[in-house]
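Human: For the file, kindly provide a plain-text protein record giving the amino acid sequence and the backbone structure tokens, at your earliest convenience.
Assistant:
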Amino acid sequence: MDSTDSVPDYQSLMLPVLCAAASGEQRIGTVVQRLAEDLRLSESARAMLLASGRQTVFANRVHWAKTYLGKAGLVESTRRGHFRLTPRGAEVLASNPLRIDNRFLNRFEEFRQFTARAAETVDPAFAATPPGTVEQTPDEMMRAAHRRIDTALAEELLDRVRMAPPEFFERLIVNLLLAMGYGGSAAEAGRALGRSGDDGVDGVIDQDALGLDRVYIQAKRYAAGNSVGPGAIRDFFGSLDRHKAAKGLFVTTSTFTGSARETADYLSKRIVLIDGEHLTRLMIRHNVGCRIEEILHVKKIDEDFFE
């Protein structure tokens, strides 16, 4: 029997994690310790590490249980490493469920959207195949799991950015542009941005180290559902015109309306729109706000060796 069999799977931990939040704001590390005691896990089960050696198997599964509960709107993050029960989560607990798992969470639209986003890039030939079924090859299962991890990470990154103070968004834009090759040095980029306190950052950053070309930037740290409309795009266009600039970058933590995107397409200046989803994809691609936890090496036969 696999040694991990003694550790409950993450779906079995969903209800205990939700119950733990019933008494108020919780620190995830404390919940891990408390559940290990409540479930009477052996010392060996508690100490079992992931292959990366950086986290225990049990802690990893508790974190994933909390993540999935969050995607269904049953818990919400409050500050670093802490979470609390939502009104929806309280309603679920009041119904005395015997078990909470992915099938249970699928009744909530937010969770269905989350799982749909993770499957968006799946080969259509396998789109109807549930993860982990025999129809999927090991390669397909591994890549599907990687997509789910990235989708969860992207949403958590966006939640953290929205919760952070406005000046944090300024630093994020600076770090991201530097990671993408813009701005020259951090000091130069930091001076170029943050000129306005308009709930975000507005400014200009050099596209090259010599400052021969510049990109004008506007950033809006909006909550989910507060979309950027065409009026904001036209205002930004006017600002570009006053600066005799040919191109601009508009970043938001929310979304752009369809009419806002049409306005950006039809205006005479090049305006690139970066919404919250695109922002987090760039953050993950350039390792801004996240880091590599583990590298898995997929190996195959070296045919040349056997010739």
In short: The longest strand covers residues 214-220. Strands lie at 26-27, 75-79, 82-85, 202-206, 214-220, 247-252, 270-274. The chain has 14 helices and seven strands.
